[in-house]
């Protein structure tokens, strides 16, 4: 059985909030603000996605196949045996 990773729902939540704000602006026929809301939301999502791919949360070293990864299980062999891996090759528990 495969462990499920926690999902990152920030872009989805931004879209939901943007739709709600757009509905409110549409009720009052404020088209300019509705369009501006979507522009800001899309810019936020693009910046968020760009930053999230640039920063690494934590790296682990698989003790079975010696693969560095960020998952709870090794993507290569499926093992859960791992140690924390840092850039200067020091291994910590």
Tell me about this structure.
By secondary structure, this protein is an alpha+beta fold. Helix content is 45%, strand content 13%. The chain contains 2 helices and 4 strands, in the order H-H-E-E-E-E. It has a 4-stranded antiparallel β-sheet, with no helix packed on it. A hairpin with a 5-residue loop joins strand 1 and strand 2. Helix 1 runs antiparallel to helix 2. The longest helix is centred in the middle third of the chain and has 24 residues. The protein is rod-shaped, with a radius of gyration of 20 Å.
Q: What's the helix count? A: 2
Low-confidence stretches: none
Number of strands: 4
Q: Which percent range describes the beta-strand content?
A: 5-15%
- Termini gap: 25 Å
Subunit arrangement of the protein: single chain
The major β-sheet equals: 4 strands, antiparallel
Q: Element order, helices and strands?
A: HHEEEE
**Widest β-sheet, arrangement of strands:** 2-1-3-4
Average pLDDT number: 79
Proportion of helical residues = 40-55%
Overall geometry comes to rod-shaped
Which structural class matches the secondary elements? Answer: alpha+beta
Radius of gyration based on Cα positions: 20 Å
């Amino acid at each position: 059985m495969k462990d499920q990773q926690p999902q990152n729902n920030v872009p989805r939540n931004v879209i939901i909030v943007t739709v709600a704000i757009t509905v409110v602006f549409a009720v009052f026929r404020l088209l300019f603000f509705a369009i501006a809301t979507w522009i800001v939301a899309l810019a936020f999502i693009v910046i968020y996605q760009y930053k999230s791919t640039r920063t690494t949360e934590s790296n682990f070293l698989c003790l079975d196949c010696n693969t560095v990864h960020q998952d709870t299980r090794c993507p290569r062999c499926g093992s859960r045996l791992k140690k924390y891996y840092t850039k200067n090759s020091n291994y910590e528990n």
